[in-house]
Amino acid sequence: MFKKVLIANRGEIARRIIRTCQKLGIETVAVYSEADANSLYVSDATESYCIGKPPVAQSYLNIDAIVKVTKESGAEAIHPGYGLLSENAAFAKRAEEEGLVFIGPSSDVIAAMGSKLEARRTMEKAGVPIVDGVNDPLKDAEEAVEIANRMGYPVMLKASAGGGGIGMQLVHTEVELRQAFEGNQKRAQSFFGNGQMFIEKFIADPHHVEVQILADQHGNTIPVYERECSIQRRHQKVLEEAPSPFISEETREKMLEAAVNAAKTIQYTNAGTIEFLVDKDQNFYFLEMNTRLQVEHPVTEEITGLDLVEEQLKIAYGDVLNISKDDIVAKGHAIEVRIYAENPVTFFPSPGTITKLVLPEGEGIRHEISIQEGSEVTPFYDPMIAKLVVFAGNRLEACEKLEEALKKYVIEGIQTNIPMLLDIVKNEQFKSGITTTKFVEEHYLKETVGKPK
Amino acid sequence: MMTTVKASMAGTVWKILVSEGERVEAGQDVVILESMKMEIPIAAEEAGIVKNVIAAEGNFINVDDDLLEIEND
Fold this sequence. Notes:
The complex is a heterodimer. Helix content of chain A is 34%, strand content 25%. By secondary structure, chain A is of the alpha+beta class. Chain A folds into three domains: 4-103, 3-Layer(aba) Sandwich (Rossmann fold); 132-201, 2-Layer Sandwich (Dna Ligase, domain 1); 207-444, ATP-grasp fold, B domain (D-amino Acid Aminotransferase, Chain A, domain 1, 2-Layer Sandwich), CATH 3.30.470.20. In chain A, helix 4 (89-97) runs antiparallel to helix 5, helix 7 crosses helix 8 (174-192) and helix 12 (395-408) packs antiparallel against helix 13. In chain B, the strands form two sheets. A four-stranded antiparallel β-sheet of chain B has the order 1-8-6-3, with no helix packed on it. A four-stranded antiparallel β-sheet of chain B has the order 5-4-2-7, with no helix packed on it. Chain B is elongated. By secondary structure, chain B is mostly beta strands. Chain B has strands spanning 2-6, 11-16, 23-24, 29-35, 38-43, 48-53, 60-61, 66-72. Chain B is 0% helix and 56% strand. Chain B has a single domain (2-72), classed as CATH 2.40.50.100. Strand 21 (451-452) of chain A pairs antiparallel with strand 5 of chain B.
């Protein structure tokens, strides 16, 4: 196993990775910006290095600085976590060139899946169902209109390099499509440096269900159940659970098989997630592949007993997977909620200083958190400050446990979305287990404010 | 009378949408901040003429910092 690993990330996920490294006797190297000097993950690590100023471009996205610290510290591998550089093909390639192990798939695979259009083409070849749409970039609004008129409205206009909802818009008419095309193309160009646009048929009221896979470097690929992540705001997940309360056993088998086929086709290695949209009739369609550890990986760990970070480290080191699909038996039900520093109604961020923090404790309650009383939540990074994960024998018990835990969860000094999470878990529609990606809009908010950046 | 448009939260000044001498209406967005990966539009509370743009794009500002001054009608 590796002796020393650098974690190119911050906050709760850096702590999460350090925890597994400690369990396996691996030394850890943390990197931090000036804004995170007092963060818990920095002191948890064996060694830590300041790599720059608070803005991510001057610290956590600075590939040169991170590679330099990795080499100087003697770390053999880099765990990128999620977000930041985790799906940056140039970073993975640089690590490969420097003789360092990037804990994730190869840079080629990251690049291929980073393009939604290339991913569509690849998945179609692999026999994975994709949403009706185009596989090549649209020349202009004229071509978009021509195709949409043939396909029928509504359609989703998307940016090939897009993410987090940026460059994406639902359009209902030809007029709307013409208006939306140029603006979204410009946004995609300025945010991702790539203005390639395409359209897909709109799937009404979809469920977001994703399959976790593990693939070693010796050709073994296994599915590790699915997660339902339909509860979203601003196209970002808020609550995730495993297993999905919606899909049938037959659909589950088909989705797990499709995910494995997809991963094998692209010769994927390490942990990865294939996201699908599932319609009300249980038809499923490829949405995208995330070539990294997911924020919501703990719910899979809770129902399977696996440590996904440990599996990632072993795979990256070259070990053969010592588990097969049949060894993984899911038990009980797990739900994760993301605690965001934000106004619970407008979703506007709420930076500030944490003046009081009381975490609920008890059997089946897990925290992933890197803040404490006195911590400052700065405006430089994502508003997610913690995750609360509950596990129980069945979904109803998990919902009850989550409600109790949220009631006891105290964060003062900033606003958080805890009131919103409580509303969700008490909602009858949520309790029924039939939740679509429109849940927050339909059951929680009359209107949403603020645009994702 | 002069009024000052202040930042509603800490963040980076992403875009200044108006320039000195320009007329703005009440409720019109005049500055966009970036905080926690979100765009936060800041609107003028009252109509008037922009007299002085204090903030600069790319600068980090704290909550309640002055962004620009407006001479009201």
